[in-house]
Amino acid sequence: MLQVKLDTGFNIEIDFKIAPFPKRALARIIDFSIILAYILLGSWAISSATGEGWFRNRGLAALFGLPPLLYHLLSEIFLNGQSVGKKVMRIKVIAADGGQPSVSQYLIRWLFLVVDIPAFWLVVALAFQLIPWWWFFFIFAGLICFIVTPYSQRIGDLVAGTILIETKDRTSWEDTVFTEVEEDYHPRYPKVMQLTDKDINTLKGIINTVNKSRDHDLAFRIAERIRSKLDIPSDQDSLDFLQTLLKDYNYYSTR
Questions:
Q1: What pTM value is reported for the model?
Q2: Among 43-47, 75-79, 146-150, 211-215, which range has the highest average pLDDT?
Q3: Per DSSP, which regions of 46-128 are E strands?
Q4: Domain of 198?
Q5: Measuring CA to CA, which residue among 191, 245, 190 is closest to residue 219?
Q6: DSSP assignment of 14-43
């Protein structure tokens, strides 16, 4: 299984398993099936309601075509790097530095789908039959890129600086800094605000990983790194210390 070591932001490396091709392909099939079902059911509903096909009205065609067009972009933005297919196959998009991708990175990945999806160019070729022969290179460009790049990245991933990884389970890597804080909570470490949202995002993922795998050595190393970085004296257990930092950050961020 191909793996990549990424720095968490605390100078601690964590191994990520690169999403294998079969999982990517199945995720793509699931997403394509969802889009196809939308088109077929939507076409039937519009035809039944208006008595004509949606493609006969330009405004209606544009409105009807937006969800399939924006499906991958919006799902990855709002589902934290996953589409429905990716969630089912337990794979997700992360930034090449191990953090959460930015909206611009998701946008770049989406724009390059026209190069990375062979079916798109096959449809173009069949529809027009007059395209230059060299366009057929794009039919296989994404697959070639996946094969030859070290981390199995498609062209959109290379340009955007993203990687597709496996997740151990559906909740193994939480991608939100939000953590519920009690009304009467009293923070202990104000220096936590020296960390960024990305650091806290990473921290929450590490806490979840430690809780599931019982890797207390990882918790100790991260805790020691943060204590040193922020110059925070603490007699708390390593995991308790990390959880307190997470709560403190949420407390100060909402005040």
A1: 0.61
A2: 75-79
A3: 91-95
A4: 190-253
A5: 245
A6: EEEEBPPHHHHHHHHHHHHHHHHHHHHHHH
